[in-house]
Amino acid sequence: MSWREHFCCGYGRTGLVVGLPALGSLMAVAAVSLLLAFLTSGGINLQLAAEVPASSAQIVQGVPMLLIAAAMLWSNRRAGGAA
């Protein structure tokens, strides 16, 4: 039995989504993981109950990640320009 048989796609993206806002803090990783689990579960429930598209939960997860990445780039650019 190969490890590839039990590997699900999407783990890498989820790891990046958790690791980006956590910035290496173990407590932040736990908190962000829990938040993303709630968003995923809520997205599934919304899809079933209110017939909202399943991708809406991914959009709700993606927009804050883009904002965090932009803020990190902005702060790195400002720090690099001042030095």
Strand content: under 5%
How many helices does DSSP assign?
3
- Could you state the oligomeric state of the chains shown? single chain
Shape: globular
The span between the termini is 54 Å
Describe this structure in words.
The chain is an all-alpha fold. The protein contains three helices and no strands. Helix 1 (11-22) packs across helix 2 (26-50) and helix 2 packs antiparallel against helix 3. The radius of gyration is 16 Å and the shape is globular. The N and C termini lie far apart (54 Å). The model has no long low-confidence stretch (mean pLDDT 78).
What distinguishing features does this structure have?
single chain, 83 residues, mainly alpha, 78% helix, globular
Helices, strands, pairings?
Layout: H1 11-22, H2 26-50, H3 55-82
Helix pairs in contact: 1-2, 2-3
In short:
The chain contains three helices and no strands. With 83 residues, it is mainly alpha-helical.
